[in-house]
Amino acid sequence: MKFTVMMKDPDTLSDTVRDAVKKSLLALPISQDERNILEEARVAGEYEKCGKWFKYGEYLEVEIDTDLMTCTVKEKP
């Protein structure tokens, strides 16, 4: 059987992107002010890339096929 599920969570994507960017910047030998500026720029860029799959940054649609036992993220409409 194949079906589509639409999930909504307004904070998960933004929180996760920010956490990943912060973690990626920890090793850089820069000041906290520079880190904050770089963080904002990178968060915006990564968030924009995720727009391929997330509508409004909170809706994610996946297609589940229980015969093949797969789950595929669909590109946003």
Write down the Rg: 16 Å
Helix content: 40-55%
Series of secondary-structure elements, N-terminal to C-terminal: EHHEEE
Task: State the distance separating the first and last CA atoms.
Answer: 22 Å
| Helical stretch tally | 2
Write down the domain tally.
Answer: 1
Annotation, overall tally of beta strands: 4
Q: Give the overall average pLDDT.
A: 95
Poorly predicted ranges (pLDDT <50, ≥5 residues)?
Answer: none
Choose one word for the global shape.
elongated
Strand fraction equals 25-35%
Largest sheet: 4 strands, antiparallel
Structural class: alpha+beta
Description:
The protein has 77 residues and is of the alpha+beta class. It has one domain (2-73). 42% of the residues lie in helices and 26% in strands. The chain has helices spanning 12-25, 32-49; strands at residues 2-8, 54-55, 59-65, 70-73. Strands 1, 2, 3 and 4 form a four-stranded antiparallel β-sheet that branches. A hairpin with a 4-residue loop joins strand 3 and strand 4 (70-73). Helix 1 crosses helix 2. The two termini are 22 Å apart.
In short:
The protein is of the alpha+beta class and 77 residues long.
Name the features.
single chain, 77 residues, alpha+beta, 4-stranded antiparallel sheet, 2 helices, 42% helix, elongated
Tell me the layout of helices and strands.
Layout: E1 2-8, H1 12-25, H2 32-49, E2 54-55, E3 59-65, E4 70-73
Antiparallel strand pairs: 1-3, 2-3, 3-4
Helix pairs in contact: 1-2
